[in-house]
Input
Amino acid sequence: MELRDLAMQAATIAVEAGRHALQDQINPHDPRSTSTIGQGTQFTPGIDTRLIRYCRTKIAALDPMDGFWEEEAGNRRPGGRYWCLGHIDGPVNYVRNMAEWTLTISLFAVDEKGHASPVLGIVHAPVLGLTYLAAKGQGAIRIRRTIVGDKREKIIPSTMTSLHGSVVSFGMSYFPNESEKVLQIVSRMAGKPADIKRVGPVSLDLCRVADGSYDAYFEPALHSWDIPAVSAAAVVVREAKGTLWRWDGGHVRWEGSNDVVATNGLIAEDLNTYLSGR
Output
């Protein structure tokens, strides 16, 4: 199956999973009920388990490829392709009955040298009625739910050429030392952009750079558990012709933590002045 067709099929799976998640969200939740996964806090353990099981079953029936990214860590072969499914991105928003949370699906390809990169990405925001999807070499589209049906449109970043008057979004960690770093940057930047937003989750913020809603997004110390969300949105950003890098200008590492910055490609230099501390 061609990547474009595969992306459409995977998006259908994400939308169906989103219906299950949305039904769960409207049920009462205790926001104090959390559990720990790795070094991060998982706010939605029960529904996450059910959603991942559902998506894995559906994707395996669609095309199992060479397995799942998180399961094949030491066995990913050159030339292989691996599905990557994440937990609900934006779990605090989800538990607090806010609209900004997503489900993500991505597909990684491993080249002959063993380097992996995402080649297909789906970001679905059920409450907002938005689905972003992209496949390598095929561009990026956004599907919006409207009162007259779904509207499908190609997306591109904004044409803002300066940080002055721009709209910038940032992400913030659960951990105090990481949060302090980004808040200091926001404080130094204040007064330059027309607006600096903090909404989340990372996958949705990145897609909003891709569709021109934001001119840039940055977040320090995205961890290994953020890889599913970042990888899915990364394909959308790049296929829309936006840019996505680490703060030091390197490629995003798909096996560890990253300081991530995405832009429309035109204000990267202005923004980097603040990220680099110059």
The longest strand covers residues 116-125.
